[in-house]
Write a sequence for this structure.
């Protein structure tokens, strides 16, 4: 049977990038997969603490993320929605896998490098930024002594935790964007290596080797610097639209969105990143309107940029209205219900995780 697993960090309320790049895709998978498919969606809070987190804020965001996942249309009757930290087996399998994960392999992964540098810039800005600038393009961020002190072990090894997340559930398919494909390859290699080391010949496979389910690229860019991706942890709130933003907020953030001084609308992500990002957003919220963002841009070529922003705000608000109201109800309604949902998800996830861990413990000589 198919098992689909994916996760999102509780580092803020999801924005349009998270929604179009991941959450909307998850809902689609839920609605289109066969009833035998097991779907797991995790709020990966252990990953969130690889960046500095305020504990009170993290507690709020964990809850907000659960409400968001339900509000976008994930159905707890159909999928298992749970917080990573409430299933202890993630940390256990991570340790075991880290004993066979190569440091060299880890440091060569490009997405990992980008995240390390990203996190460093959030946590230790000025001096570390300096050391990043002194770093040759293709060097490992760890070559610099200052970075070695700044990069914490958890951040260094997060792809191993990601592998544990996936492998615990006998996952067959992981929906990811192109940028995460390398990490999935790492998880596959860890699973193959582990099976090779420990699986006895006639037993069922110890760890299932997952496949990538490449999501169509939908990179939503920041509204305030459109060559960067929209991100939860960007210090500027007006750089992103949250799935819970009010109609007024959506309009005002779009009015302030950075575009360019070229007249009219055209689509060119390289030359007109701001305008193209807005065209993409309109297209993704109204895919029936045109066959492609290019075609949509051609249809709107005579619009002023002010009118383009107005149209984007209108379409986005229309697409988020229902989600926003669901979210509001969940966050202001009976909190017992949210807690029960979280506990129920964790229980169901743990059952699968524990069965995997029994196999793993037995295989490595730590069974009862
Ligand atoms: N701008 C984006 N466009 C398209 N997809 C995006 N995703 C994130 N930003 C965009 C997708 O959202 C999913 C969940 O991401 P995550 O929370 O695990 O971490 P992230 O990718 O690092 O997202 P953020 O919002 O930038 O969070 P922070 O600031 O905490 O790092 C992933 O599937 C991701 O591809």
């Amino acid at each position: 049977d198919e098992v689909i697993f994916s996760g999102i960090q509780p580092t803020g309320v999801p924005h349009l990038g998270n929604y179009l790049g991941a959450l909307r895709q998850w809902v689609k998978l839920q609605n289109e997969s066969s009833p035998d498919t097991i779907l797991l969606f995790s709020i990966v809070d252990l990953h969130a603490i690889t960046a500095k987190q305020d504990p009170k804020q993290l507690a709020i965001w964990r809850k907000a993320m659960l409400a968001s996942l339900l509000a976008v249309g994930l159905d707890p009757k159909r999928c298992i929605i749970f917080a990573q930290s409430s299933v202890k087996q993630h940390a256990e399998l991570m340790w075991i896998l880290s004993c066979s994960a190569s440091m060299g392999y880890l440091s060569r992964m490009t997405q990992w490098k980008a995240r390390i540098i990203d996190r460093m810039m959030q946590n230790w800005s000025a001096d570390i930024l300096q050391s990043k600038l002194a770093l040759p393009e293709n060097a490992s961020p760890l070559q610099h002594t200052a970075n070695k002190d700044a990069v914490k072990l958890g951040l260094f090894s997060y792809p191993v935790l990601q592998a544990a997340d996936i492998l615990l559930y006998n996952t067959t398919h992981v929906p990811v964007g192109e940028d995460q494909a390398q990490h999935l390859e790492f998880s596959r290699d860890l699973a193959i290596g582990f099976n090779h080391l420990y699986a006895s010949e006639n037993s069922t496979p110890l760890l299932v080797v997952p496949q990538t389910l490449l999501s169509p690229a939908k990179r939503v860019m920041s509204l305030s610097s459109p060559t960067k991706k929209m991100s939860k942890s960007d210090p500027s709130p007006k750089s992103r639209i949250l799935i819970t933003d009010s109609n007024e907020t959506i309009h005002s953030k779009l009015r302030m969105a950075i575009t360019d001084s070229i007249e009219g609308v055209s689509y060119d992500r390289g030359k007109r990143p701001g305008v193209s990002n807005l065209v993409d957003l309109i297209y993704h919220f109204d895919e029936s309107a045109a066959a492609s963002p290019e075609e949509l841009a051609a249809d709107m070529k005579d619009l002023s940029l002010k009118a383009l922003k107005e149209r984007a705000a209108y379409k986005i608000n229309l697409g988020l209205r229902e989600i926003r109201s669901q979210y509001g109800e969940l966050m202001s309604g009976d909190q017992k219900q949210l807690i029960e949902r979280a506990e129920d998800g964790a229980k169901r996830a743990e059952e699968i995780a524990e069965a995997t861990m029994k196999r793993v413990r037995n295989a490595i000589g730590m069974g009862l």
